[in-house]
Amino acid sequence: MRRASASWSCWRHKRQGVGAVMVWGRHRDTPELTQIALPVFSYGRYPAGPVRLDEQEPSALVSARFGACLVTRDDIVFGDDDGVVFVAASQAGEVLAAARQIGEVERDQARKIQAGQTLRQQTAFSEYLARRAAEPSYTFRRHLRRIGGAIEE
Q1: pLDDT digits (tens, 9 = 90+) for 24-39
Q2: pTM for the full model?
Q3: Which of 53, 74, 89 is the last residue in one of the domains?
Q4: Which of 16, 64, 124, 131 has its CA 20 to 30 A from that of 37?
Q5: Number of other residues whose CB lies within 10 A of the CB of residue 17
Q6: Other C-beta atoms lying within 10 Å of the C-beta of residue 27
């Protein structure tokens, strides 16, 4: 039995209202997938297609395992060109708030860089290096917390 192409499968998923496809592995049919405009997240392209066809797990339509992550209907998946993040729906508000805050800080840093203030200046990097020389256990994360520059708390 021949396995359906990735593009045929994605057309079907898109018509059913699926917002994106995630593959724990590689995908094929990239030009067709681009035309469909259904985001596909994978480890990359593999034009030869699948080299084996595993049996479908009994819970395949209820949950999905991506490495150590078990994703269920109680989770929300966020994705962009850099990858995907799995979040428990109950924590989505908290995660989105943190992401917005980090984004604001990074945009502010970028504006300052465009205005001529380097990131080294913004993070008082020379001060960090001097303190680390005197105190080898002093970490950059600790330094950023001390100067109010930590964004990923």
Answers
A1: 788 888 888 888 887 8
A2: 0.62
A3: 89
A4: 64
A5: 6
A6: 22
